[in-house]
Amino acid sequence: MAKIRMGMVGGGEGAFIGTIHRMAAAIDGEIELVCGAFSSDPARSQRSGAALHLPAERVYTDFQTMMTAEAALPPELRMQFVAIVTPNHMHFPVAEAALRAGFHVLSDKPATLNLNEALQLKELVAETGLLYGLTHTYNGYPLVKEARERISRGDLGKVRKVVVEYPQGWLADRQEDTGNKQASWRLDPKQAGISSCMGDIGVHASNLAEYVSGLQISSLCSDLTAFVEGRELDDDGSVLLRFDGGARGVLHASQVCAGEENGLRIRVYGEHGGLEWAQQEPNTLWLKWPDRPTEMLRAGGGYLGALAAANTRTPMGHPEGYLEAFANLYMAFAGQIRASEADIPLDARSADCPGIDEAVRGMTFIELAVAASNSDVKWHPFPKH
């Protein structure tokens, strides 16, 4: 089979996440990068494309030109989907242009700058019938999928408590004043939206809580703050959660926990037991029981379920991490494209990729967390769109 052809908007020289996306897309040999508009600076875009060994005519000065030019190419040459790896404010314009030009979209999170754009995007995806995926990377880890499967089949009993935390320390001081591009745009409301911490990492935590537990947040109570003086957007937050079915939860996210790296961790407790997974030790899943010893499950083990196994590439004891988790989402999306073009049913692995519904829920969470923090009302219902 021919490789799935990918274009990219953003991710030029000096952009961390663009390199991650390209490596993840390439891991399984299913996807090839064929074109891109890598920067709003035309010269930087051209340099980036040249460094990636793309032909000059497939390196574009802006995304609008890219969509028009790619759509005019023969079907067997043009890109089939675009990966969006820009700051948040450009996610919707690029996605809209791609969908209207007939291309599938795989976007970095959060989906859009605000909820209104996310709702417009949902309508556009339905209107065009094209595919939309969202890179909530942590869903891609095999043992996260194993945790979800064990909860869904009732191993823990009815879920009572979900605790998810995501502490980082990289913004504990004013990195935005040092020329740090990643800090500058994430703390700029015009580029990031109404939240930094919740918009950047809190939304990952909320998505992970819903994905693993199989439950949806029904209401929340929020307390956000900016600890570093002079910031317009939050750099820390705590959110109490209520889920459909009666479970309760706690979500803590912070970018100012000095000394922390990327400490995403989730614990879920049911009537009969609990489980725990941490992103910095992703190849281990802990199962906890009141009447027998704690169990340690390892990635690659033959005792894992079919979905975890399908998302594992190496034998037990050969660690897989962030890039492979990212690659699992790219593989799932590529599978969706192949199934769509062949008009065949999706397999379980390909179906397991965040999409437009998760995109809307993510933006709803961000805006509701900010609104709740600014309100004297304690509990705020989670709207269903």
From TrEMBL:
Annotated ranges, domain Gfo/Idh/MocA-like oxidoreductase N-terminal: 4-134
GFO/IDH/MocA-like oxidoreductase domain sequence ranges: 145-276
SUPFAM superfamilies: Glyceraldehyde-3-phosphate dehydrogenase-like, C-terminal domain (SSF55347), NAD(P)-binding Rossmann-fold domains (SSF51735)
Coiled-coil ranges per UniProt: none
Pfam families assigned to the protein according to its UniProt record, in alphabetical order: GFO_IDH_MocA, GFO_IDH_MocA_C3
Name of the protein in its database record: Gfo/Idh/MocA family oxidoreductase
